[in-house]
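Structure (tokenized):
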């Protein structure tokens, strides 16, 4: 991966973590980073062997998984703070991994 590609990928990762608890689209992400959507998709596949949606979903699930260790949080609160729209969406996604 070239320096420019690595820098762009790092910006994407930072964007994801900064907005993980929010709903955002891939076009939003590409625009914030300053690249074309097609470039965003290609970059993720080259760097991770996953498309951006799969990558983001995986980060959200991992965040939720680690948050489940804190017994003071409800599953709903964890789901929402991990960027899922509701507890059901979190549970479905969690079961599929």
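Design, position by position:
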């Amino acid at each position: 991966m070239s320096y420019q590609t690595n820098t762009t990928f790092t910006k994407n990762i930072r964007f994801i973590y900064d907005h993980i608890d929010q709903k955002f689209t891939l076009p939003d992400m590409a625009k914030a980073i300053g690249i074309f959507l097609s470039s965003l998709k290609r970059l993720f596949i080259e760097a991770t062997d996953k498309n951006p949606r799969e990558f983001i979903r995986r980060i959200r699930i991992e965040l939720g998984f680690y948050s489940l260790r804190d017994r003071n949080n409800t599953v709903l609160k964890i789901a929402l703070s991990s960027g899922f729209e509701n507890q059901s969406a979190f549970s479905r996604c969690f079961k599929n991994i």
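Reviewer-requested clarification: The two ends are 28 Å apart (CA to CA). The CA atoms of residues 12 and 33 lie 7 Å apart.
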